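Lecture 7 notes: from sequence to structure.

We start with a single chain of 231 residues. Read the sequence below before looking at the structure.
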Amino acid sequence: MEGHVAIVTGGCGNLGRGVCRALTKAGYTVVAFDVDTSRADGVARAVTLDVTDAVPCAAAVEEVVRDFGGIDVLVNMAQRIIIQTPLLDVTAEHMRVSYESGPMATLRMIQLCHPHMKARGGGSIVNFASDAGTRGIPGMGAYAAAKEAIRGITKVASLELGRDNIRTNTVCPVAYSDPTSSWAQRSLAENPMGRIGDPEEDIGAAVVFLAGPVFVNGRTIHVDGGTGVFR
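Now the structure, written as tokens:
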């Protein structure tokens, strides 16, 4: 995929770095957006950015287009996580933070990148959700709600943007990532493959597949080794 440009939001965390490395190895020019770029790896550029802030997001997208020629792939991974909060204790602030950093940021990035992807003749959007939403995990109510909202956005985007040859899919990973490592470790006992996903080898590989010119649109792909009961 030489000459193709990918933006990865939340691309400097453990899971994000794995996805960036996989895309880079596949030939993409990768730009990571993250609030903390100190650990960036496998990218052509890392941009310090809060995806909840609309004006810097727009400026960063325009900078990518100006410096690299366009946008072919958008991977929406950024999400602030609120965990270990019983549902009856979830507050309006918990929901606001979860939705602004997750579905609202996802929608914003889709809207900003769409005209540039259309100008290139199409592209791929990969949004990240979670089995915290698809099957439910106690203590993760705000996070689960935000992730299910992202899946809803994915479905509508696949129908509306498909006419522009832009495919939109969702990945639900089970892998070691910085904020959820302890939860991932606990889920090991449920995994029929006896391990947790590797950020690059497993999750990154799935993103590379969906980023390419495959005839897959509007789907949720569980990259979890068979963890969970809901599909």
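DSSP finds seven helices and seven strands in the chain. Keep this in mind for problem set 3.
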